[in-house]
Amino acid sequence: MRLAQDRDRVAVGLSDTVVRRLFTVGLELESAMAQMEENHPAAGRIRAAAAELDTAIREVRHVVFDCHR
Q1: What is this structure's pTM?
Q2: Distance between CA atoms of residues 55 and 63, nearest Å
Q3: Which of 8, 11, 20, 51 is most enclosed, with most CB atoms within 10 A?
Q4: 16-67 per-position pLDDT tens digit
């Protein structure tokens, strides 16, 4: 029972802090992309970084949901 409670606490902590921070950085990258021209040399790198953050968020959520099982 204690282990289950610890897992729930960790899962809540992850979802409340890590996912929120990753999501915020992703939004900032999307905002930066909107302010630059499509052919800007950094546009592709920023788009790729935003995609990596999306993947990381999905992976963290998967781990959180696994902890609740």
Answers
A1: 0.67
A2: 13
A3: 11
A4: 788 888 889 989 988 988 888 878 888 889 989 999 998 988 888 887 777 6
Structure tokens that stand for 57 in this block: 């968020």
**Residue 39 phi, psi dihedral angles, 5° rounding:** -90, 10
One-letter amino acid of 64: V
Closest to 63 measured CA to CA, from 9, 1, 11: 11
Domain ranges of the chain: 2-67
d(CA 7, CA 39): 46
What's the gap between Cα 5 and its chain centre?
Answer: 24
